[in-house]
What we know:
It holds the Pfam family ThiF. The chain has 369 residues and is an alpha/beta fold. It is built from 14 helices and 13 strands.
Amino acid sequence: MLNKERYDRQIKLQGFGIEAQHKLASAKILVIGAGGLGCPVLQYLTAAGVGNIGIVDDDRVSLSNLHRQILYNSDDVGKLKTKAAFERLNAMNPEVKFSMISERINSQNAVTIVSEYDVVLDCTDNFATRYLLDDVCRILEKTLIFGAIYQYEGQVAVFNVRNKEGFTTHYRNLFPEPPNPGEVPDCNEAGVLGVLPGVVGTLQATEAIKLIAGIGEALINKLMTIDILTYQSAVFEIPSLNLTDESIPYSIEEFEKMNYQLHCGIEFTGIKNISPSEFKETAKLPDTVVIDVREMEEQPKLDVSYVPIPLSQLKENVSQIQSQNIILVCQSGKRSLSGAKILQEILSSEYSISHLEGGINHLIKETHE
């Protein structure tokens, strides 16, 4: 039974009314990522009365999250984000049904997860997952609402919805090729003003509500950009291009065989991605050298023996590397992968080259769990 008093101010809106509220109550929305973008998205969709919300995230709350992920507080540090999010959101609106999926979405589970929902909100922070969500939503014909942030700038778009002329666009129409590893730093390396994901996530939630309620003009086949330092914003038409690349999956079978880490250059043949636990063991082995490719002033410092060589100076300092087994590390894993690729091109096949997947951030997180 719909509690009209809870949504009174929304129902009274001209052009909205009780019919739109019922549409929200019947909607099924999937939010991928309960971080900076996901927090405001979840709060506003919950408050608005979306009936069914799925939350996918395998991460835990860390202290460095709290300046922008306002769904959590200091007591939540170390908790699964899905658990902490449910506690707050359920208290906010017990009329909403939540499904918590505490795992990382991948090509093996995405079809099962996404097929249960009408609209998917991409609140992630990496290109591999963005391309994965774009492909699975295209194949399953699900609406995808995209959001991204970088320092002081944000982007929002709506994909896979046909406009009045009958055509639709996808994330691959906007970005046909993934950027090279390390080319676009994430907020772990570049930083982000805490309010920015709040602004962009709120816009994503707005687009979801507009589409479901059937009000206003959504950003269908359009990209909105905003700079919160200057408040300059723009809306661009996204060209509708035929996707003919043979490397793109066009069926569920092809999708489930897709390696998005490899597709986005996060994984290279001959370079091993090692976990924090593997790193702790491997770093102790004889004839092994750990190379920190961060800048000299970056913190925190590693508590194992290592050689500091910033990525920008790696090519000129390859002669410093005397060991056969090489492990590269950085803050989030992007620069270390780029460094591993550089060494792979210079050194012979006798060298074993690996990098710490997820970087020092991942190492610290696992250490405190």
